[in-house]
Design brief:
The complex is a heterodimer of chains A (154) and B (288). Chain A is globular and about 40 Å long. Chain A contains 5 helices and no strands. Chain A is 31% helix and 0% strand. Chain A starts with a helix and ends with a helix. Chain B has 288 residues and is of the alpha+beta class. In chain B, helix 10 packs across helix 13. The longest helix of chain B has 13 residues, at 263-275. Chain B is globular, with a radius of gyration of 19 Å. The chains are: A mainly alpha (154), B alpha+beta (288). The A-B interface holds A 55, 59, 61-63, 72-77, 79, 104, 108, 110-111, 118-130, 133, 136 and B 1, 4, 7-8, 11, 18, 21-22, 24, 195-202, 206-207, 210-211, 214-218, 221, 247, 250-257.
Chain lengths: 154, 288
């Protein structure tokens, strides 16, 4: 956990992808799906679950219910994610996290691995203008969440 | 995908149902807001004509609050915002500035002179050729008519004063003008309302038009109406002015808000106020 935090911090300051990682602008999408792993490192579903429940990270439960996650006050702006792994392939799930607007036109769901095309982006939750935009989640966090979702079978 | 869309549409339509579904303790949809057992306020009504393409009905944020929060607003002794109204009244009578005047020197009893003000602002000021919020007018009087220092746009002093002024219109329907000289500002406000903003890329409409009645984490989403402002928020035990609320919502989508008191936020305030034309002025309201 500690290590993960340090890595995340390093990522932010470096502002660039690790070697072997696909940077947000280089992600290849086909009909909303992203085939290639963003890191080449297999996702860790347990870590993915934490990212989804954490308010400062994915905070997916703000909008979605996930029965298997222990997180208070799960929202209902989006559909329940139970069974998502039976409805979608890993590539589709990865694509939805990178930029869900390519799957669901006009959706309110935010993009988690995109750094351009924003209006008045802020510097985190400070209300100040962003000087440099980092994606909401890191490449490995995306892979971890994909692993978690893929395991949500009906 | 069509399946998803239809599920969402049904959820949105089942407004009453979704309140119950959320599981949290919420008031029943038919609760009536009657203040001090005598003043009945309109908390739901038909949408104004300009909004008919988007919404059929408009609802005060009060409708979405929990029963005990709702109850606090029904009795002035229980409403923590009313203390600040008293402070606003003290300030109203206080002589300040080089002209040796108080607000009362020119406007006498606010129950008469300020009645209807909250309901019709932001409003065009012909002499100055500008759109003015209540806050803007307060500072205009302080600087030009009293020779006093302006209040900080968002501040305790300003919130007290606008709360006291709002109470004088309590129960009156919001009725801001949207055409004539304010038309351009109204259009600008509308543009801002529908522009997806910040790194989370959400517009006011994403939450308050498409998802009112739904839950975003523990928050029960309202239509984001401003008929209740200033609003006493239990969360931090103070009054919040309209543009401070806008600022917070944009910060929360990881955006860069406009300045409080800026022409952009004043245009947005006019537009949002107009979405509530027909709801009663409530301020000071009680919210989470």
């Amino acid at each position: 956990m500690k290590l993960a935090l340090i890595t995340a911090a390093a990522f932010v300051t470096a502002g660039a992808a690790f070697a072997g990682e696909i940077a947000p602008k280089d992600v290849v999408m086909t009909e909303g799906a992203v085939e290639a792993s963003l890191t080449g490192v297999a996702g860790n579903a347990a870590e993915g679950g934490k990212v989804m429940a954490n308010r400062a990270q994915g905070n997916c439960v703000a909008c979605h219910e996930v029965s298997s996650l222990k997180a208070a006050f799960q929202g209902n702006v989006g559909p329940s994610l139970d069974g998502a792994g039976s409805r979608w392939s890993e590539a589709q799930l990865r694509g939805m996290l990178v930029n869900p607007k390519m799957t669901f036109e006009g959706t309110v769901m935010p993009a988690f691995y995109k750094v351009d095309g924003y209006t008045r982006p802020g510097d985190g939750y400070t209300g100040k203008a962003a000087t440099e935009i980092t994606p909401v989640l890191t490449a490995q966090q995306i892979e971890d969440v994909v692993a978690f979702l893929a395991a949500l079978k009906e | 995908m069509t399946k998803l869309t239809s599920i969402r549409t049904i959820a949105a339509l089942a407004f009453a149902g979704s309140i119950a579904l959320g599981g949290a303790v919420t008031a029943d949809e038919n609760a009536e807001l009657v203040i001090n057992g005598e003043l009945a306020l309109v908390t739901k009504t038909a949408a104004p004509d300009h909004l008919k393409d988007s919404l059929d009905e408009i609802y005060s944020g009060w409708v979405y609050r929990e029963t005990d929060t709702q109850a606090m607003q029904m009795d002035d002794f229980d409403n923590p915002g009313m203390v600040f109204v008293d402070l606003g009244m003290d300030a109203w009578n206080k002589v300040e500035g080089t002209e040796n005047k108080s607000c009362a020197s020119c406007h006498n009893d606010p129950a008469e002179s300020m009645k209807g003000v909250r309901a019709t602002y932001p409003k065009w000021n012909e002499a100055a050729g500008e759109l003015r919020t209540v806050e803007g007018q307060v500072n205009h009087c302080r600087t030009k008519n009293m020779g006093a220092e302006p209040y900080k746009y968002v501040s305790g002093d300003m919130a007290n004063m606008v709360a006291m002024i709002a109470v004088q219109s309590r129960g009156m329907p919001v009725n801001v003008a949207i055409d004539g000289p304010v038309k351009a500002a109204w259009e600008q406000g509308k543009e801002i309302y529908y522009t997806r903003t910040g790194v989370l890329d959400l517009s006011c409409a994403s939450c308050h038009e498409q998802n009112y009645g739904n839950y975003i984490r523990a928050d029960h989403l309202s239509q984001g109406q401003i008929n209740g402002f200033p609003a006493y928020r239990l969360k931090d035990a103070r009054l919040h002015q309209v543009q401070d609320r806008f600022w917070g919502c944009i910060r929360d989508v990881r955006g860069e808000p406009y300045d409080r008191g800026s022409p952009e936020f004043t245009a947005l305030e006019l537009y949002v106020a107009s979405r509530g034309n027909g709801l009663s002025v409530e301020g000071a309201s009680v919210r989470n």
